[in-house]
Every structure is written in structure tokens, then in C-alpha cells.
Specification:
6-stranded parallel β-sheet, two-stranded parallel ribbon, 245 residues, alpha/beta, 10 strands
Amino acid sequence: LAHSLEMAQVAVDSGTTEIILTPHHNDGMYLNLKDDVIKAVNDFQLALDQNNIALKIHPGSELHVMPELPEHLESGMACTYANKNKAVLLELPKHTLPTGAENIIEQVAYMGLTPIIAHPERNSALCADPEILREWVQSGWKFQLTNQSCSGQFGEAIQDACYYWLERGWIHFIASDAHRTQGRSPDMRKGVKQIADWFGDEVAQLLSYDNPKSLIEGGVIMNMNVPDKPASKKVKKWSWFGLMR
């Protein structure tokens, strides 16, 4: 609890007012059923209020793309974004696109839920073939980059992947993916500033405020309006092994 309160204070001090908490669901180690997540969020909100930390939190989950995922959503075992039953945060493996993953995500979309893919820039297969996202975006899937990926804290190659997809208008959110007070921190400022430097304040506002607000309210997720002449960035050549010079 003490660590969580410290993270919340970092978020508030850096300008964040609301957070959707997205613990892992069905990743082989944690199950984190929806009812348990909602109770934990309510208990934590009470602790935030008692400690005068002006942060509003909402339930959610980072759902691993497993064959049983549609059933978990249908039965109410898994939590959607802000528990609105409108959108779901999905996590792919780090290095591969497993056989059948697209079919599972299509089943989720057929249920009337908007799939939002977490940190595609950290999946080796997507970085090796970045045009895969084109078809997925056309299918109505959404994509969420990690703040530190955009700011360059995870390395230039991952930052290049972020720029590539942002330049094409295929990204809908930037998120902290916070795990601790430093490093994987809730402080969003560096990533938001980098996106603003590349594509302008309007795009940064859409990805860090407007679309996240829509998630909380169960509203419409908007696409980027990429400026005609974004700030240039020399992007490395793409290869099967990732981004290389």
C-alpha cells in the first residue's frame, strides 16, 4: 500500500488526475478476476482519499491474448477498461505473434468490444513487420504506446517504432504502464512532450487526455490528425531482427 500511495503521489505531482489500473489477467502467474480488481480499486481509492492524494482511479485489466479470453470476458471474469464493457486492453507476447492470436482478438471484437493493443513497439514481430498494424487499424483495432518508449528511455530502436506508427496515424493512446515510482514511473511528461515536439500539441492532447477520457466515459475513440509536415526523425531500416542501421 505504501508503494502504491507513493506512485499515486508521483502521478499527481506530474499532472495526472485520473488513472485506469490494469493488472495482468491470465498471464500464467496472475488471474485477477474482475470482482477482485473492482474491490481492490475501491479499497485503494479510499486510501487515496484518506491520505489527501487527489487522484481518481478506475478498474481495468491488461488481458493476455489466450484462447480462453473471449469466454472470460463473456462470463464476466475479466475486467474491461473502466469496467464500461466498451474496450479491452490486450497484451501480446514480447517476441511473437502466436498462431490464432488474430482470431482470438477478432472474437473479442465480434463481442462488441474495441480491442486496444498494449505497447506494440515492444513486440519483436510487429517491429520486424510494422505494416501489420495497417490491416489491424483498418479492422477497428486501437493501439497504445508506452510513455517511456516515446521518450527514448527504452532505446532508440523502440522510439523509432513509435515514430513510424505515429507518423501514419495508427496510434490512439499513450500510457504510463507504470510499475514503480522511478523508471517505469507514472510520470507521463517526457513522452507527452516528445509527441508534442514531433506532431504538435493537438496530437499529444488527443493521445494523453481526450482519448483516455473517452475510455473512462465509454465514449468514442478518435483517430489522429497527423500534421502535413511533422518534425522529422531519421528512422532506422526495418529487418526481421528488429530495427537496425
